[in-house]
Amino acid sequence: MTTLRGAVTSLVLGVAAAIVIVAVSIVPFLNPVFVGFEQDRAQAQAWTGWTAAELRTVTDAILSDLVLGPPAFDVALDGAPVLDVRERQHMADVRSVFASFYLVAAGAALLLAVAFAVSRGARARAILWRRLSRAGGWIAVITVVGGAAGVLFFDQAFELFHTLFFPAGSYNFDPGTERLVQLFPYQFWVETTIAVGTLVVALSLLLWWFGRRRAAANAAEAA
């Protein structure tokens, strides 16, 4: 029973750590500098036919609605809405998914904080850090393996993600006529996904390394 309880505790802590790491890893890329950089690489200006200033104005407005709200996504150029009704609804759905995920991430962070609060004494802290260290190692391995598969089968992974989190038919857009996929082309999503995954791996390895050090220090203190 003790072994089972320990395994369940390790699993719960590992999942919580993974959620927090992913949540933290996404944040640095939700900024105009990175988005603009990736849009340039994906040739969003050529796709849209806009000037650099127009592209920045539209993108910054969409990003602001996504991160800060309200989620209107009603930016216009020369008095004409950039996104059609279906595109605006999809972006509103994206913001809802983000909000739900970060609510779960806040709960995961609270769970980890409680775990530290109840782990009193050097021995308990050593066990907790050891579990988190192992979790960090597993998160890194799973991310590398899953990320490699995701890059090789990006279209299928992208479709699966949208099927799980968005209504059917609400996320397929025509790059010839609809601005959302012109603003954020295929290359944008591939490279952004790789960037987020790389940061997830880096933070996971940091948790693995730091957890090992703290576990060893607490175990020495408890001896």
Describe this structure in words.
The chain has 9 helices and 2 strands, in the order H-H-H-H-E-E-H-H-H-H-H. By secondary structure, it is mainly α. A hairpin with a 2-residue loop joins strand 1 (76-77) and strand 2 (80-81). The chain has one domain. It has helices at residues 2-26, 32-41, 44-48, 52-67, 85-118, 122-152, 154-165, 179-183, 186-222, and strands spanning 76-77, 80-81.
Q: What would you say about this model in short?
A:
Helices cover 78% and strands 2% of the residues. The chain has helices spanning 2-26, 32-41, 44-48, 52-67, 85-118, 122-152, 154-165, 179-183, 186-222; strands spanning 76-77, 80-81.
Instruction: Please give the number of β-strands.
Output: 2
The sequence of SSEs as H and E is HHHHEEHHHHH
Strand order of the largest sheet: 1-2
Biggest pleated-sheet summary: 2 strands, antiparallel
Q: How much helical structure, as a percent, in the residues?
A: over 70%
The coarse overall form would be elongated
Q: Any idea how many domains?
A: 1
Cα radius of gyration in angstroms:
21 Å
- What class do helices, strands and sheet pairing give? mainly alpha
Enumerate the spans where pLDDT stays under 50 for 5 or more consecutive residues.
none
What percent strand? under 5%
User: Helical segment tally?
Assistant: 9
Q: What does the average pLDDT come to?
A: 92
C-alpha termini separation:
26 Å
